[in-house]
C-alpha cells in the first residue's frame, strides 16, 4: 500500500531534527503530555493547503531560536519506499511562505500535493465544532471539499475577493460606481454558486460514506446544509440560483452598505449535523456523542475520498482513542483497516491502542525522538 514511508523534520516546534522511516502500516504515537505527539501530526498536516491542523502561524511552527524550518515525506510502497517526495521549507527572507517541492522540483504551492496525497485530521480543537459559530463548521466542510475538488479553492478565493471589493466599494468615501458593483456581483454569483454546489457534493459524499461505516459502531448522522444558495440548488437549476443571487445582491446594496458587509451568500451558510438515533441536533448531544459523530464524519469523508481517487489516504487522529470506549476503539481500528488508509494516532497510554495489535507500528515519543516499541 502506498503510504508515508519516511518523515524528515528540521526545526519544527520541539523537533530539532528527525529522520524516521515507517513500514507503511498505521502509526501509533504515545508519550507523556508535551512530548511532541501533536507537533509531529501538525508537521505532516503542513503538507496540504492551508495552515495545518493547528491553524498556526508559520513563525510559531518554526522551532524557537531557528530562522526557518523544513518538513519532508516520502510516499511509497514496500518495493519503492521513496516513490514520491513531498517537502516544504520556510526560510528567510519570506518566513511566512512555504516553498513546496515535489521530487525535489519546485511546485506552485502546497496545493500541488493534492495530486499525491489526501489528508484529513481530527484534533481536540475541533471538539466544539457543533456548538461554536458557523464559520468553524464551514471551514471543516470546505477543507473536506478541497480534498475532493481542487476547483473549490479557486471558487472560494474568487468569491472572497469579489465580496471584499464590493464591501470596500459600498463602504468607501465616494458613492460606488453601479457598473463596478454589477461586475463584482456577477463574479460573486458565479463563484458563490460554484462554492455552494461543491459543498453540496461533499455533503452527499459524506452521507454515502457514512452509510458504509460499520453498522452500530458510530451513531447515525444526517448532514444538511443551511443557506440560501445550498438550499436553492436542491430544487432549482444552478443558472436560476445564480440569477436569483445576483438579483438579491443588487437589491440589497443599501442594506449591505449600512451593515458594512454582504448579508447574504455562501459565507453565511451552515452545516447542520443531526444524531439520527436520538433525533437530536449534534449540539445538544453529550461530549462523547459529539466526539463519536465527529469521528464518524471524518471517516465518512475518508471513505468518500477513497472511492473517488487513487492517491494514498492519510488520517491524522490526535487524541481520538482516549474518547472512545473499548468497543468503539476496536471498531475504529477495523474501519481504518477497511478504508485502506494510513492513520497517525496519538495518545498518552499505549494500552489505548491494544485493538490495533500488529496493524500499527507503535512508537514512544519523548522530547523530539521516536523509539519503536517492541
Ligand atoms: N515553536 C516551538 N519551538 C520549540 N518548542 C515548541 C514550539 N512550539 C511548541 N513547542 C513545545 O512543544 C511541546 C508540545 O508538544 P505537543 O503539543 O506535540 O505535545 P503532545 O505530546 O501532543 O502533548 P499532549 O499529550 O499534552 O497533547 C511543548 O512542550 C512546547 O513547549
TrEMBL record:
InterPro entries tied to this protein? AAA+_ATPase (IPR003593), DNA-binding_RecF (IPR001238), DNA-binding_RecF_CS (IPR018078), P-loop_NTPase (IPR027417), RecF/RecN/SMC_N (IPR003395), RecF_2 (IPR042174)
Enumerate the GO terms in the molecular function aspect.
Answer: ATP binding; single-stranded DNA binding
- Statement: the UniProt record of this protein carries the keyword ATP-binding: yes
AAA+ ATPase domain segment(s)? 23-367
Binding site residues for ATP: 31-38
The superkingdom listed in its UniProt entry is Bacteria
UniProt-listed PROSITE patterns: RECF_1 (PS00617), RECF_2 (PS00618)
Q: Where is this region: Disordered?
A: 72-107
PANTHER family, A to Z: DNA REPLICATION AND REPAIR PROTEIN RECF (PTHR32182)
Task: Enumerate the HAMAP family for this protein.
Answer: RecF (MF_00365)
Q: What function does the entry list?
A: The RecF protein is involved in DNA metabolism; it is required for DNA replication and normal SOS inducibility. RecF binds preferentially to single-stranded, linear DNA. It also seems to bind ATP.
Q: What is this protein called?
A: DNA replication and repair protein RecF
The protein's organism comes out as Parvularcula dongshanensis
Organism taxonomic ancestry = Bacteria, Pseudomonadati, Pseudomonadota, Alphaproteobacteria, Parvularculales
Gene encoding it? recF
